[in-house]
Amino acid sequence: MWRQWIPFWQPGLSPQSGDVDLLFAGLLIASAVVLGLLFFLLTLFCVRYRSGNQTDREHRVAKSWHWEVGWTAASLVGFLGLFVWGASVYFEMYKTPADELDVFVVAKQWMWKTQHPGGQAEINALHVPVKRPVRLVMASQDVIHSFFIPALRLKHDVVPGRYQDLEIEVDRPGQYHLFCAEYCGTDHSGMIGEIVAMEPADFSNWLAQQAPSSPLAAEGGALFRELGCSGCHGNGSKVRAPPLEGVYGRPVPLSDGSTVIADDKYIRDSILLPRSQIVASYEPLMPSFEGKVSEDQLLRLVMYIKSLAGRSS
Amino acid sequence: MSETNYLTTDYTLRSWFLTTDHKRIAILYFASLIFFFFIGGAAATVIRIELATPQGDLVSSDTYNRLFTMHGIIMVWFFLIPSIPNTLGNFVVPLMIGARDLAFPRLNLMSWYIFMLGGCTTLFAIFAGGIDTGWTFYTPFSTLYSNSYVILAAAGVFIAGFSSILTGLNFIVSIHRLRAPGLTWYRLPLFLWSLYATSVILVLATPVLAITLLLIATERFFGVGIFDPRIGGDPLLFQHLFWFYSHPAVYIMILPGMGVINELISCFSRKEVFGYKFVAWASLAIAAVGFLVWGHHMFVSGQSLVASLVFSFMSFIVAVPSAIKVFNWTATLHKGLLRFDAPMLYALGFIGLFTIGGLTGLFLACLAYDVHATDTYFVVAHFHYIMVGGMVTAYFGGLHYWWPKITGRLYSEHWARAAAVLIFFGFNLTFFPQFILGAEGMPRRYHIYPPEFQVWNVLSSGGAAILALAYLMPLFYLGYSAFFGPRAPANPWDAPGLEWQTSSPPPEHNFATQPVVTRKPYQYNRNFQAEPQNA
């Protein structure tokens, strides 16, 4: 592999990180060419035209716009090429994840809490199967953090108040650094963890060995009753609220005439800011749960509503 | 010397602290900036000693966070932004345009007092307990979570901003209104074009910073939801506002440095700057396009991918005028008569280091690579190549170049060259390893780090020791020369600019008679002798 020729450079471990490394190599080569040319000319001129050296200083290059237009155009073309290359890889990295294996990530001062759909929870660690895209749904409980896996050349800020999606895929089993890359206070540099990539069979064993309390969706169902959601959204309720069965992943018509897809972000916003997007033909009656549910509880509720996707209302 | 100059007209403290002479105000700024530079440098020294080992064994994490915050705030707002404009600019702008002083001498003095008030407020915040938000004040950490003197430090920066605005205003009006007869725009030295562009940014961008800091204080004091999502705010709004100022601020810091380099390269090549008009307009192009790139600090923040695309594109565009300048400086050397006095060594060092800083800026403008490199040491290395390798190198170059004019004394050329070379090597040893650390994925602002990063950190810390020593050297030989150096002639470098056509140091009102400009800047005859602009 060409990447192993670069000293001090651990090759990336995902399909996209190979593209990033190739881009990095391209940037390095382009820079080396420019720097090489510049240093060659600087050295040449400094030696040849040093005072005391007898040399031809007549017949200077006439200043003309040809030179200026020439090097401006050359820079512009080179830069545009790099721009297009970098942008195309970026769109591949940050493409909207397909609905793969979901893992929830909650960032807080100063730890990473990860939660598998079966209820297995980890702190400062995340086990994933190799060669399988994993969709991370990330939220922060306090300040801005940033989820950074150098081996995958991948990073995404975790901004409070919203969900962030990120798809990761690891090619080879092993343990890799997880860093918080956005300064978040006292123990910022202690907010590190491990990504443990395992063969699918090992991963299944690992999941089985962790004593799962109960699947996230089941816990979400319990919360749904405890918090009183079922009082309005449940079957046979007297208050008229939209039923949630079969909603997830479907378009929802809103009272302002637009439609949204009922994804994680929409459900989260509907719990915290219920009046921002009212379902068409319903009254804005629902109270906000802002400050009443933690990020952990929110993701369980989302999982519960997601688990209702298959049922008909 | 029999006749009096600006230094000898009056020796009282009152004559210094109530002066309206731009040259004396420049000296006031210079003394203040040395003070802030060494405070910021001391913080950097402790940081580099701490990072020599992966464990946090010298200071606590809280102290470490306060140290890098203090280093950033002091260096950005109390050294880099005022450095060249307020010292060298203040001193030579009126001389270069053939004026007796700046347009508003009293405003100039007031600007220094405001700057000191801001500086002292920030220093008070630092010594009362410090702040730990990083120089970027990111919300909601700075507004709700930090238990440190955020508002006080922000107040210091807020106050100092008015000093920036007043200086910018003073330069713009002076360059428009006070040019000597015959000094048309295309006869202005390129240093003035770059200071003009800088001043435009200062006047237009600084108010946005002031507003942003006020909003932080409003949220922290009164709990009004602006940036914190729990009370209805948006944390990314802060980043948009902050970088709308702080990215143009990068050009506030580097443009004056580029301006100085034109003067040095031309004088020590005994040649006119190649492509004068292109270099002049490149400064204004950087100032204008620099306002449209701020989103490149937010490629991983979750801003829309289309916004990232536009900001990446504009970031590549803003690199074009910088490239134009580098090519023109190199072309200026061609068929010149090159002398390698200390200012020229700094100028050549600037070209190399600035180009490395600029090229690595392209890595960060490149969307996919930025996802990996942002918030790592790659960014730290990149902006230090621009700010320290570029700006501070240019500042030292300019300082040596105009030192005989400012003090009327000559410094030791041997010591000056030794310091220039030592700074160059110390700088590269300090910051080049940080590119490798960043490419390997070491995040910035890490007090404790995984042990595999130690080798490069030790190299970097070793370089920092050399750099610290090298930065102390000018303090001694320049300090010595100011009092005991041999007297400088009016024009020791045989340069054609107006500032060299009056005595060293200049008299209180700069010129005995009003100079009348008759030719373009940077003119040398066939024997490589300067042809003064006013002859």
What does this structure look like?
The complex is a heterodimer of chains A (313) and B (535). Chain A is an alpha+beta fold and 313 residues long. Chain A is 35% helix and 20% strand. Chain A has a five-stranded mixed sheet with strand order 3-2-1-5-8, covered by helices on one side. In chain A, helix 4 (216-226) packs across helix 7. Chain A starts with 14 loop residues before the first helix and ends in a 6-residue tail after the last helix. With 535 residues, chain B is mainly alpha-helical. Chain B has a single domain (22-501), classed as Cytochrome c oxidase-like, subunit I domain (Cytochrome C Oxidase, Chain A, Up-down Bundle). Chain B is globular and about 65 Å long. The two termini of chain B are 25 Å apart. The chains are: A alpha+beta (313), B mainly alpha (535). At the A-B interface, helix 1, helix 2, strand 7 and strand 9 of A face helix 3, helix 8, helix 10, helix 11 and helix 12 of B.
Concise overview:
The complex is a heterodimer of chains A (313) and B (535). Chain A is an alpha+beta fold and 313 residues long. Chain A has helices at 15-48, 65-93, 200-209, 216-226, 229-233, 264-272, 295-307; strands spanning 101-108, 111-115, 121-123, 125-129, 134-140, 145-149, 154-158, 164-168, 174-180, 193-198, 251-253, 259-261.
Keywords:
heterodimer, A: 313 residues, Immunoglobulin-like, Cytochrome Bc1 Complex, Chain D, domain 2, 5-stranded mixed β-sheet, B: 535 residues, mainly alpha, Cytochrome C Oxidase, Chain A, globular
